[in-house]
Amino acid sequence: MYELNKIDKQILRELQKDASISITELAEKVNLTTTPCWRRIHRLEELGIIRNRIVSIDADKVDLGFIGFVQIKTSNHSAQWYHQFSKTIIDYPEVMAFYRMAGEYDYLMQVRVKDMHAFDIFYKKLVREVEGLTDVTSTFAMEELKYTHELPI
């Protein structure tokens, strides 16, 4: 594993806040010249530490403000089932986050859709397309209090 130094961490913090920042402005903020700053960013990308540069979109303003959490139990834990299940879920654009869990439920996903009707359509598609689900429980966010992509580096 690559050991991040102080400057690498500063670069990552700044890019998490605004990935569109110019190299010149970023270099100035981390007390480097542009070429060494660019090299560090390039190295962080090559190492896979920076996976991509994204735009943060206000979900409410694009009519995707309904947040559902789906907890799933299954009795099938074969490698073949897991592979097919994972592929199916990853291909659903409504799924924002998807985890294999320890505890009462086997999987957890966060879903973003327009409203309860759209969630119901998603739910029906899920239970129709995925065999072997023994329990599918949904909960819904009443209010989003915090949402960030910024890791505490």
Automatic annotation (TrEMBL):
CDD domains: HTH_ARSR
One Gene Ontology term from the biological process aspect of the record: regulation of DNA-templated transcription
Domain HTH asnC-type: 4-67
A molecular function (GO) term: sequence-specific DNA binding
Listed SMART domains: HTH_ASNC (SM00344)
Top-rank taxon, per record: Bacteria
Organism classification: Bacteria, Pseudomonadati, Pseudomonadota, Gammaproteobacteria, Pasteurellales
Gene Ontology cellular component list: cytosol
Name recorded for this polypeptide: Leucine-responsive regulatory protein
Keywords tagged on the record: DNA-binding, Transcription, Transcription regulation
